[in-house]
Each structure stands twice: as C-alpha cells, then as structure tokens.
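> forwarded from #structure-qc
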C-alpha cells in the first residue's frame, strides 16, 4: 500500500509519542488514549477505503427518511468519497452506481454520473458536480 512521506512521518511521530508516554507511565488519562485510538482508527479507515489512483465511495442512507418530513435530518444521509488517501464527507448526496471523472481544470471538482435503477426496470441517470474542497455538490440537468 502506498502512503505519502508526510503521512508516514506523521504516523511515526504519533507512534513514538504513544510509546514515549506509555513507557514513562505518565498519567495522561483514558481520554488521551481514546483520542489517539480514534485518530488511528480514522487513518486505518481512510487507508482501507482508498485505492491508489482511484476514487472510491461509501454512501450512508438514513433509515429515518420515511418518517414525517419535519423530523427528518438531511445530514444523516451522506457519501464518503476517498481520493488520494483523503476522506471527504458530502452531506445530502447518496450514490448508487456512480462513474467518477476528475475535472481537467480543477483537481478538486469531480463530475459524477450515477445510474439509478428504477422500480420499473429503467435506468435513470443523475449527474452531479462535487466540489471536494468545500464538500458540496451541485445537481446538473
């Protein structure tokens, strides 16, 4: 698995800090260790879901969507997009079978064509422009 030099040095620094503090038996408390564990879990999740030179995604669908509209929280349905070993959370966007294409002029813009299979068997194509830097999306068409 490929990892950038900067990220590698950051990981080594964190590991050395953990080893140093645990070897001295300094009482940092469980909150500090939980924070380190959360950081390590976040890094492992991003590394597991990222593929070199590819854009991958994971869409989370909120099951409470079918309750009355006043109670629905749109931020619970989102898509995590992994690109260059970074994670971007796009709230309100749910993808089924997308095809990603990076914008030629701006590396932070991704054109998405999502093929949605309808109940009658037809396929509906939704197109989006996703801005990774601002973590927003625009529906085109």
């Amino acid at each position: 698995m490929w990892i950038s030099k900067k990220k590698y040095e950051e990981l080594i620094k964190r590991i050395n800090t953990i080893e140093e503090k645990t070897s001295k038996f300094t009482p940092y408390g469980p909150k500090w260790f939980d924070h380190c564990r959360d950081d390590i879990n976040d890094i492992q999740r991003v590394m597991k879901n990222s593929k070199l030179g590819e854009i991958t995604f994971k869409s989370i669908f909120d099951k409470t969507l079918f309750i009355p509209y006043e109670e629905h929280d749109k931020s619970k349905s989102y898509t995590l997009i992994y690109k260059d070993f970074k994670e971007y959370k796009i709230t309100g966007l749910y993808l089924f079978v997308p095809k990603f294409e990076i914008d030629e002029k701006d590396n932070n813009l991704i054109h998405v064509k999502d093929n949605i299979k309808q109940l009658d068997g037809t396929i509906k194509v939704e197109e989006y422009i996703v801005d990774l830097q601002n973590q927003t999306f625009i529906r085109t068409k």
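QC bot note: Residues 30-49 form the longest helix (20 residues). The mean pLDDT is 81.
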